[in-house]
Amino acid sequence: MLTARRLGEPNKKQLVIFMAMISCGAFACRLQPGSNLEPLLTAKYGWTEDNRGRYYSLSVIMILLGELLGAFIGGKILPKGRRTVFMYGLTLTVIGSIVRQIEFYPAYCLSTLICFLGGGFIQVAAPRYIEEVVPIKLYGFCVAFNMLA
User: Fold this and answer.
1) What's the CATH number of domain 54-149, 3.40.630.30, 1.20.1250.20, 1.20.1740.10, 3.40.50.920?
2) What is the dihedral of CA 121, 125, 127, 133, to 10 degrees?
3) What is the pLDDT of residues 38-87, one digit of tens each?
């Protein structure tokens, strides 16, 4: 029997789906450049002391470029709906994770750009989703969780 949901009562199914989407996106992009990954990347791709800084900087630039482009493009397609933006973002994140498996530095940079492009999409749509779906008493938790992801 279908029952009407009271205003302000959390829709647990939607909250679980939202948290799973954010977690999957964060997990798929987990191995990104960071201060502790520089030695790992140096060993994996055989960087020398002369070119290590340049390659590492390029990896970090791909993160910023992906997030900025993703936020810009995601904002442009947001009027088509949150679900559309989420699906594009998650699809890009999965594609970037697949490209990440190629053991070649340009593929690593491309996968970083693609993953963070998807992350930018998700970061544009997530606040709108939280605002519309999450009840007031859980709003702060969900916003904080989104910012951590």
Assistant:
1) 1.20.1250.20
2) -150
3) 777 778 888 888 887 788 888 888 888 998 899 899 989 989 988 899 89
